[in-house]
Amino acid sequence: MTSTSLPTSTPLDLIHLDMQRVDQVISERLTTEVPLVREVAQYIISAGGKRLRPALLLLVSGALGSQNPHRHALAAVVEFIHTATLLHDDVVDESTLRRGRETANERFGNAASVLVGDFLYSRAFQMMVDVNDMRVMQVLSDATNVIAEGEVLQLMNMHDTTLDEAAYLRVIRSKTAKLFEASARLAPILAGANPQIEALCATYGQALGTAFQVIDDVLDYEGSAGELGKNLGDDLREGKVTLPIICALRTASDTEQSLIRQAIQHGDLTHLDDILSIIVQTGALTSARNSAMTEAQRAIDAVRQLPSNAYTTALLQLAAGLLERRS
């Protein structure tokens, strides 16, 4: 692990060498005699991304002064689980663009994407078993189950314009924040920390993951395809009622509400420009960002109760930096 005294330009620079080791583990564990499995898995994993979930496990490990030898393998496990969810999500959502290039389902077809997602899930569980720790198994198996429930909840909520903020938060805390929470919880388990420290780390992860998803949903109405690496208005096309829409519906006029509801109910992007204007004029993006700020502050409050060192500073920076995210 890199020295805590080294200056860093971003929070993740502190774990640069650790992340290289995680990438090595990922490459080693993608071995298979089935060429299509390897091709699809490497295609989506090589697309990059922020790798926040494995990074979170490594940063929290550093904050707790832990160098448990299993940390790199479990960081790779977390990335495999996340990648599997992406493969399945893009099929369900009929997405065509992710991280600035074709989705795996667009390139290889739905069947290959679903089956390779299954492969990554099962490989992740093989790697969990190697760690031989029942608490680790419990946390990760519970997380994958909750994520699946969140996916189903989201499916049930599609095209439902009566969805409120509480129901929305329930979905994203299951679908997105749960793996952040699990990643942050694994570090104190590996470190043998007490239950209070474990709870603080889990709170940080859940709050960070919630803020991350809220900002992601804001950017669907605020950015551009070039900046986001996905198509602007995808959530609207898919009938997803996210926080910017919920906030806009609270204060929009009857006519504006009708326009938004019609688009959500039918996945109609015909009036996307008008809806974007309504979302901006009602202050919905600001309201949603304020909700993300509340979650980021919750993460900051939790991590401030951990030992003070370069890694906890990086965790604080990570939470604060989410609010400035533009892609």
UniProtKB/TrEMBL annotation:
The keyword NADP does not apply. It holds the Pfam family polyprenyl_synt. It catalyses: 5 isopentenyl diphosphate + (2E,6E)-farnesyl diphosphate = all-trans-octaprenyl diphosphate + 5 diphosphate. Its EC number is 2.5.1.90. It comes from the Bacteria. One of its GO terms (molecular function) is all-trans-octaprenyl-diphosphate synthase activity. One of its GO terms (biological process) is isoprenoid biosynthetic process. It is an enzyme of class 2 (transferase). Keywords: Magnesium, Metal-binding, Transferase. PROSITE patterns: POLYPRENYL_SYNTHASE_1 (PS00723), POLYPRENYL_SYNTHASE_2 (PS00444). Its cofactor is Mg(2+). Belongs to the FPP/GGPP synthase family. Supplies octaprenyl diphosphate, the precursor for the side chain of the isoprenoid quinones ubiquinone and menaquinone. This is Octaprenyl diphosphate synthase.
